[in-house]
Specification:
With about 500 residues, this protein is mainly α. It contains 20 helices and two strands.
Length: about 500
């Protein structure tokens, strides 16, 4: 029998806990008390910012946004992944407003990590296999590369372990992007969602690049370019400012736009509806213009290289033949047409290597470093060349040497053994995609396979002239496309079974 007088009354903290739960969890602050509480918090924050320091407001805003982003990444992995990609597009634009004061790279790394941990928690709660969909050649060869990087900690030519930690952390981030994409691509619709998001963000970047070309740089952008004389020298060439849009630099902008152009063109040649083809055409125009306005020669070379893969794999198609003839005509007109402006001249210089002083200088640099690469089969060690070499290994012979090529960068730091492993990795990637393309039976999936293969090959070609693979935000597209090569075949529709029963 219960006696009310003997029952323990709830304490003050229990009553407050129930009140907070009622207002936040149940009513979501949609009440008079909730509005009062929000107004009180806002008043306290405003008073603290005014009295203590105005920078406290930035810290509070950053904390609120960061906490919200971390919560999303942990408990909604797909939305967290898309949010991370979106942030990676706009973070450089915001950072230029803040005079490069924000740790944008660390923020992206944290968001990737939280999304990866969210997948781990979800698989733990649902008792799913942790490495589901990871039994494929691409995963295997990348784990082999990871093992090689782990061995590099014992490289006798390397002076700093901190540089090795930086390199291994970056590579693990790439593996996490690949694993996250394998997880969220659980249906063909999810892959289409990712493609729409990616092309939409590229469209925004292309439109803003056109805005910079037609209107000119905004005030804070001009100050950012002029602040560093070396940056200004690289951006302002032939009496024309190369455009960088919302991304980190003109090279990253041009390479990303070129790869999106390759993807869209190949997708337009596939089995899609007229409405979708018209939509892609609208997206294509500012992206092509943005690629041209970036003044990136590597981007200009990517375009025909990526489309060659499409032509070779569909050479028997009349549509491909017509596309090839039209492409050659456009190429000849651009190269030899009777019109001249800085943008066209920059495009033409890509295919006139004898007149390209920077290309000849890079070729001389490659030849000068070849004896070192031959004497060091495992290289000088991670983060020993270029700017990272000056930071982590300032006394190394490679410190400050410009790694103008991704393959040269690999050969210098990881040796010809690492270069051979990288080339083998890209061979496995292309082999997997081509094999799955010919195994698939759905025309729609085959079209996406073609677009992904052409775009990946464009990245691989660009990596010869620039460190193209691994830049933000392009790394999200590259490693997500690797996941597409693995997962698309699993959504392929089986052929209808034929009735083999014959009458006697």
């Amino acid at each position: 029998m219960n006696y009310p007088s003997l029952q323990k009354k709830p304490g003050i903290f229990q009553m407050l806990g129930r009140l907070v739960k009622q207002q936040i969890a149940d009513r979501r602050l949609h009440s008079v008390m909730g509005y009062t509480l929000l107004a009180l918090v806002a008043t306290v924050i405003a008073f603290a910012v005014a009295v203590i320091d105005e920078r406290l407001g930035i810290v509070i805003i950053a904390g609120l946004l960061g906490g919200t982003a971390a919560f999303v990444c942990l408990f909604n992995t797909k939305l967290g992944f898309y949010l991370t990609i979106t942030v990676s597009f706009f973070m450089f634009f915001v950072n230029r407003m803040m005079h490069d004061a924000l740790p944008v790279g660390a923020a992206i790394d944290v968001m990737i990590l939280f999304t990866f941990i969210g997948i781990y928690f979800r698989k733990t709660m649902l008792k799913e296999k942790y490495w589901q969909h990871s039994r494929n050649p691409i995963t295997a060869v990348y784990f082999l590369t990871l093992a090689y990087l782990l061995v590099q900690v014992f490289n006798p030519s390397m002076d700093s372990v901190a540089g090795w930690v930086f390199a291994i952390r970056k590579f693990i981030n790439f593996l996490m992007i690949f694993y996250i994409a394998l997880h969220i691509f659980d249906s063909y619709d999810s892959i289409k969602e990712f493609i729409k998001l990616w092309l939409g963000l590229c469209f925004v970047a292309g439109v803003y690049g056109c805005f910079q070309e037609w209107h000119g740089l905004l005030g804070f952008e001009e100050r950012w370019v002029n602040y560093d004389p070396l940056r200004y020298k690289l951006y302002f060439q032939a009496s024309h400012m190369r455009k960088f849009s919302i991304l980190s630099d003109p090279t990253a902008f041009g390479i990303l736009m070129a790869d999106a152009v390759i993807f869209i063109l190949v997708l337009m040649m596939g089995n899609i509806t007229r409405k979708m083809r018209n939509t892609l055409l609208v997206l294509l125009v500012p992206i092509v213009l943005g690629m041209a306005y970036s003044g990136t020669r590597t981007a200009n070379a990517m375009l025909p290289a990526g489309l060659i893969i499409f032509v070779l794999m569909t050479i028997t198609s009349k549509k491909t033949l017509a596309f090839t003839i039209a492409g050659v005509v456009v190429f000849i007109v651009v190269l030899f047409g009777p019109f001249h402006n800085p943008t066209i001249q920059r495009v033409r210089s890509t295919f006139m290597l004898s007149e390209d002083g920077s290309y000849n200088e890079r070729d001389i640099n490659r030849q000068s470093i070849q004896p070192y690469m031959l004497r060091h089969p495992i290289g000088g060690g991670p983060s020993t060349s270029g700017i990272m070499g000056l930071r982590y290994n300032p006394h190394h012979v490679l410190a400050g040497f410009p790694p103008d090529s991704g393959y040269l960068h690999t050969a210098m730091e990881l040796g010809w053994v690492g270069l051979a492993l990288t080339c083998f990795t890209y061979f496995i990637v292309m082999w997997t995609g081509i094999r799955n393309y010919y195994r698939s039976r759905s025309p729609e999936i085959k079209a996406v396979y073609l677009a992904v293969l052409a775009a990946l090959y464009g990245f691989m070609i660009a990596n010869y002239a620039q460190v193209a693979i691994g830049q933000v935000p392009g790394c999200f597209f590259f490693f997500a496309m690797l996941a597409m090569l693995v997962k698309l075949i699993t959504f392929d529709k089986p052929e209808p079974q034929k009735n083999n029963n014959s009458s006697v």
